[in-house]
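Subject: complex prediction, re-run

Hi both,

The earlier run crashed halfway through, so I resubmitted it with identical inputs.
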Amino acid sequence: MTSMSKPFIDKHLPKNKLGLSVRNYEGVMSTLCAGCGHDSVTAALVQAFWELDLAPESAAKVSGIGCSSKTTAYFMGQSHGINCVHGRMPSVATGANAANGDLHYIGISGDGDSLSIGFGQFAHAIRRNLNMLYILENNGVYGLTKGQFSAAADYGSKSKKGVSNDQMPIDPCVQALTLGAGFVARAFSGDKSQLIPLIKAGLMHKGFALIDVISPCVTFNDHAGSTKSYAHTYKYYHPLVHTDFVAHADEVTGSYDKDGAMRVAMADGGELFMRKTADDYDPRDRAQAIETLLMNKTEGEIRTGLLYLNSDLPDMQAANKLPKIPLNQVPYERLTPGKAALAKLQSRYR
Amino acid sequence: MKDLVDVSGEVRVNDFVIKIGNVNGTGSASANGLLMKAIFRMGVPVVGKNLFPSNIQGLPTWYEIRLTRDGYMARSGTAEFIVAMNAETYRQDLAEVSPGGFLLYDSTWPRPDLHARADVTAIGVPLARLVNAAFDNARTRVLMKNMAYVGAVAGLTGLDVEVIRGLVKEMFGTKEHLIDANMKAIGLGLDYVREHFPDPLPLRIEPMDKTAGHIMIDGNTAAALGCVYAGATFGAWYPITPSTSLMDGFKSFCEKFRVDPETGEKNFCIIQGEDELASIGMAIGAGWNGARSFTPTSGPGISLMSEFIGFAYYGEVPVVLFDVQRAGPSTGLPTRTQQCDLTLAAYASHGDTKHILLFPANPKECFEMAVQSFDIAERFQTPVFFMTDLDIGMNDWMIPELEWDDSYQPDRGKVLTAAQIETLEKFYRYEDRDGDAIAWRTLPGTHPKGAYFTRGSGHNWKGGYTEDAEEYKVVLDRLTTKWKNAANAVPAPVITRCGKDARRAIISVGGCDGAVLEALDRFTENGVNLDYLRVRGFPFNAEVDAFIDQYDEVFVVEQNRDGQLRSLLVNETDAPKHKLVSILDYAGMAANPKFIIEGISAHLEALGDVA
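This time it finished cleanly. Structure:
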């Protein structure tokens, strides 16, 4: 990590509705390797926030430990961030969300952080339908500790030294689907045009939104024989559902229009357009989504896009009947029962 | 049947122990609670201790009720009257009866062997036979047998049946049939002993006036109430004995006081985590975001939470941990009490970490110190450990009524408002602007200029990542100063002087307090002069150092094997190690004065000294 600021010149850059340029959404300089997929995700996040006209202070960034987790310092320097312990970001996000549900929570994690040490917390945050955008920057490898296989490494994928992985991979999207997630997407760091709308939609989704981003590690996992390399991903990846996001749509429907696009209003604003590439795929069908992903695995295909969407599930705030005014702002007078109530209460202990 | 005789030749009024042996899962808790409450209502001070197994059903359990006309707060360690309802433990129970004492058992199945001790009077009451004849349902019979022994005990000791009736009515409210059934069962035991044992026992319960203005409450409930009054809004937890009832209490108080009657909105959030690692993470997330947050747990939970505790210490996030200690190591004895997490909590997590600890001694202090814990956590922006134990947490204690001052306002610590941030040229999270080692913080969502990055990795005073030795040390050194300054914020020690020129003293902590005070009375009676300091916070207040300095020797009384409080005193005060003599009890039972009297006496005898 670094604290090195970038030179700030944005005179000639376009401004969004808040009068801010993309530069206002950047963070400090990245210290990741040149060409790292994670930096592309960071750039996509900056672009998405800027395009959504989100006030920087309305977002809070949460992460754990690993190359991916470091990136929360590299975007949204005017938002609070918390970079906690390995695999435990979902719990911090849960508490933060309970304290103030008005913020947009952006969790950045990796396949090591989410699928090994943090597998439990990843699963339980989904079960609680925590309202957050959870980006899993997936490269199949431990970068900071120099190239060990992660739990997302495909069976038979080769390490840089030529060793073949002999354990079955964990597919975070399949897991999320079985655990009841309402927004499950897969993307590729090399395809910004797909990633940016997904980020925007995920931010506006009320509930847990997972985007599993294949994000190649140029240093330890970008060689022949790796199934998480740029070359392999470009070759085998197919968008299953084209997604576009419009921030301020005036007409809201839930059915397919003439050109085959489905329009869905997002709870936190804006409208999502989904266009299927295969006639028989329905992103509202959880079982089909799981089946498709399982089939793809055996075929070696990487299907991407918004694989599943259900915006009607109550999130953790709703399930706990939390007040409209965030808990961290409820005045003390409403929290204390006071002297008289204490006196009255004690009759039961006499 | 042997005649009732007073073997010891002494009539004891309101000064003896009734100990009930039972099988867990038989519903005896309400009968035992009823007995104790009735004695309390008669104005007699009581100490109640539940000795229960780590089990749901079928293992032995005991409930001790000490009537203490002198108002002592500890167990006596004696058992003048044992109500033996568990055939499995008859022999053990008989062996435990104090000389001159009594053993009541269910003589439906005669047991001549229970009459074997010449110095103990065994009283047979055919409880099962009486109850089976009066009630049909199997479960009812089990429950009513408990009520029947309440009646028998009342008849034998003079416990006022009208007081019991009043309590039964309160217990069952408008359910007349339950009131009638329970009173009928109580009558069975009562009538039987009145008919068969008309002479009163030398163990008498007589009305007193020493419980007015007092309540009976357990420490976990009192601590939970403290959380409510402190304005805590977020609690995350993972169930673990003996802390579970703290969150149960918080939930029930919040359901009562914190739900908007019109909208049904809840001004609190309780999340049952998937484990302790998640629970502390959630509490930290909420604390970071400006909600008063806490997690109740026990030793095993603290072990699991340790990594996150270090993160909150270094990232300076307020959070309160309630450690209801139980006997370790490892899973240990989950239903036995100890003070065995003192050093664990003081230095929890890897690297140089030091924490703030509060040590309540009874439920009254649980209520008060729970509130203080939140104030201190937010003032010092760090984890605060509330160190209680199973004895304080789960047993009902007689304490003066809780008091509340409506003028209380939470100390939210140094948090900048949006307007304050606006006036700053630049905000740096870890800048010691006031020279008190506490930096101002901002809450997410307040102002873009107030944004900062909380991290567990090396950081400088600006909040930026650093590997620079000097920058790193600046933050680390400020944390030490901040921790040291907390010595004046934690509750001051309580000092009890014997009024004579004492050369020796006792230092103790938490739930040992009652046992120490009682032991001191015995020492005074025997001409041994000892002063006493009870530690209530860590880091230690300067008074602790000054106190130790005044004596030739200081006995450190605590409930663990390794002398953990003594270790902390050696580590964190200037006291010479040889002056601090450990007096230890780690059997897992609530403290009684015996180990203190015996330990100190043995030490003095070995020295050939008496005072």
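Chain B is about 40% helix and 20% strand.

- K.
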